[in-house]
Amino acid sequence: MLHCFIIDDSEIVRKYTRLIFESLGFRVSEADSPIAAIERLGSEAPDYILLDWRMPGSNSIEFLGKLRALQLSVRPYIIYLVTENDPLEIQRALTHGADNFLLKPYNRQIVEMKLQEIRTAA
C-alpha cells in the first residue's frame, strides 16, 4: 500500500486531502507543521509528501532542502501544494527539491490525473 504524508497547517485541507488519498487506496499520515513532520518522518517512509507552500512560522523552500537532506529509506516524491499559479515560486520549489506541484483547490479527479502523470513520467 502506498503511503502519502500531508504537511499543511489547515486541518480542513489535511482532512479533505486524506479522504481523497484514502479513497485511492493510500495509507495517509499528516502533520500541521514542518517541525512536526520532521519528527515523524524519521520513523515513517512515505512514497509521496504533499507540502503546503505557505505555513505560519515556516519557510517551505528551506524545508524542502531539509527534507531532501534526511536519510530516509525511500526517496519520497514531493508535491508542492500552491494556491497561486506563480511560475517563479513553483520554479523555486522545483529547484529546491520538489518533484511536482498541485494547484489548490483540487479534487479527487485532479489528484488522480496528477498521480497518473507522475507514474507515466517515472
TrEMBL record:
InterPro entries: Bact_response_regulator, CheY-like_superfamily, Sig_transdc_resp-reg_receiver. The modification 4-aspartylphosphate is found at D52. Pfam families: Response_reg. One of its GO terms (biological process) is phosphorelay signal transduction system. Keywords: Phosphoprotein, Transcription, Transcription regulation. Residues 3-119 form the Response regulatory domain. The keyword Aminoacyl-tRNA synthetase does not apply. This is Two-component system, chemotaxis family, response regulator CheY. It comes from Hyphomicrobium facile.
